[in-house]
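Quick review question:
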């Protein structure tokens, strides 16, 4: 071998040795940051505040999806990277890519199951390559100071991951975003019930549509503003809400349910599903904190007084509502329905 060729080989070996030594001085997080092919992964680690944890002593084994892997997943789901970064299960997804200990490629065997830091297991397959679940390892054994990285071509998604975001809407969000409950939403805002009905719940909301409110206002010959300014607006709205998540399958003939107002409403199943005299036209619109049932008439509590001058509840015109119901109650119910429907989008 000539001295020239020997010198070239020596230089190459020196470069390779120095590169490996440099890489092994970096943590698995620093390797991902400095590589440039893992910008989405790095952004996710930063968003989930996992950088410090994975920069610790370890050791860790990280199955790292590339930017192309993330791009493919986002395209399939028709969501943006920001949607993924804002997902409440982001931390779980990231931890599903990490195994405690330093597991080199030579430690992998067919059918091996390894528990991730999320708590769920991933499975190794060696048929036709090296696969972690359905994702292929395209570069193995990238060693760092606190573990090893195996680069994979698909994002690992745990089985309990909810890819759809609709369930994140509260009943109020559904009402707001639907567009058919503007009067109800306005009433909820006026009564300052939006925050309360956006809470943990769960709530069951019987939500009147804008048409239901319009019918009642016309029969009473009053405006929506009259209803919004009524002192019993909050009571009317709360008369449309029941504590707990009551699905349509939970309803039975003659069932009485206490509302958040304190009065009860009654269920009838003769010829349809009715709440008092109002028919349920769309049932089981689920949100993150409850369920909405859309109704065709505003529910008005029996003690509703149309004006401050009245000493006794004033009967409504023949609206099909129960005796003693009043227009202002309708407004309240509409507000409540709007809030609830805003929280959960209709399908």
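Suggested answer, residue by residue:
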């Amino acid at each position: 071998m000539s001295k020239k060729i020997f010198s070239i080989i020596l230089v190459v070996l020196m470069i390779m040795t120095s590169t490996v030594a440099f890489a092994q001085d970096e943590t698995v997080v620093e390797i991902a940051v400095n590589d440039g092919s893992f910008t989405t992964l790095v952004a996710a680690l930063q968003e989930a505040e996992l950088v410090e944890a994975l920069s610790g002593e370890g050791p860790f084994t990280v199955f790292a999806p590339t930017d192309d892997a993330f791009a493919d997943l986002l395209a399939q789901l028709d969501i943006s990277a920001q949607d993924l970064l804002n997902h409440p299960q982001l931390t779980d997804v990231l931890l599903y890519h990490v195994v405690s200990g330093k597991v080199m490629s030579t430690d992998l065997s067919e059918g091996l199951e390894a528990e991730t830091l999320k708590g769920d297991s991933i499975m190794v397959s060696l048929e036709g390559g090296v696969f972690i679940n359905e994702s292929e390892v395209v570069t193995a054994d990238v060693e760092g100071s606190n573990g090893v990285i195996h680069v994979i071509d698909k994002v690992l998604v745990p089985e309990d991951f909810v890819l759809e975001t609709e369930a994140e809407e509260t009943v109020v969000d559904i009402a707001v975003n639907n567009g058919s409950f503007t009067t109800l939403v306005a009433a909820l805002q006026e009564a300052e019930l939006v925050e309360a009905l956006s809470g943990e719940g769960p709530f069951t909301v019987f939500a009147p549509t804008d048409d239901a409110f319009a019918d009642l206002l016309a029969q009473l010959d009053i405006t929506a503003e009259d209803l919004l300014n009524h002192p019993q607006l909050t009571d009317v709205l709360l008369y449309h809400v029941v504590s707990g998540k009551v699905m349509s399958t939970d309803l039975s003939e003659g069932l009485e349910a206490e509302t958040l107002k304190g009065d009860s409403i009654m269920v009838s199943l003769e010829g349809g599903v009715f709440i008092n005299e109002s028919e349920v036209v769309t049932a089981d619109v689920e949100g993150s904190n409850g369920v909405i049932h859309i109704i065709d008439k505003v529910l008005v509590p029996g003690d509703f007084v149309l004006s401050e001058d009245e000493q006794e509840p004033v009967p409504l015109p023949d609206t099909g509502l129960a005796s003693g119901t009043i227009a202002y109650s309708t407004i309240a119910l509409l507000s409540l329905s709007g809030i609830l429907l805003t929280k959960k989008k209709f399908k």
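Why it works: DSSP finds 14 helices and 14 strands in the chain. The radius of gyration is 30 Å.
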